[in-house]
Amino acid sequence: MADALKLKIDRMTPEGPGMARPPGQRVHFVPYTAPGDTIEAVVRQSKSGYVRASMTKLLEAGPGRIEPRCVLHYSPAMAEAGKAPCGGCDWQHLSYATQLESKRTLVRDCLFRIAKLREPRVQAPLASPGEWRYRNKVLVPFGTAKGRLVAGFYSPGSRNIINFEDCLIQPEGSVAIVQAVKKLASEYKWKVYDEKRNGGWLRHLFVRTNAVGKSVAALVT
Length: 221
Hints:
alpha+beta; CATH 2.40.50.140; CATH 2.40.50.1070; five-stranded mixed β-barrel; 3 helices; 10 strands; 30% strand; globular
């Protein structure tokens, strides 16, 4: 195993990972970290201008780190147990206030680096009226695991589907539709698409929900 690095996370990046700037070194991008975290990490990919790393231990939590509500979201305990996280969302380990401030920082940084504004002033983001159940559409892939039909989201960096019974960022009605279709697909033995064999027909379920809770669903074949 590669030697562990000790890193201090400076801020979040547009792609989701946290960023560390070790003195005299390239920037390091580390998923599932929070501003102010002190961590141990190992290098996964080294490029001329940056390094991608994975956290192996959380030494000290930053002030904005919280415990994710979803049991499928990444956590240090999950990593230690060797369990794959769900890739449906990236920032559940950040408090909502930290998420908003991180987005403000990202906009300010873009205006500084790309638009070349020396001291860009960015107002605070308008907070959503609800922190949960806010997404209005979802595309759920189907697959099989150990002979059982599964529907969920891909684990980061893989084609392995993490099956879910609930998703806290989807409306309850949307989740109910996913579970109902999954039950039908299992009962009637619908043929799930197999990427390796290029067989089967059921690939995804698309659900869109409007502001008054009405949904439309479509199977993607």
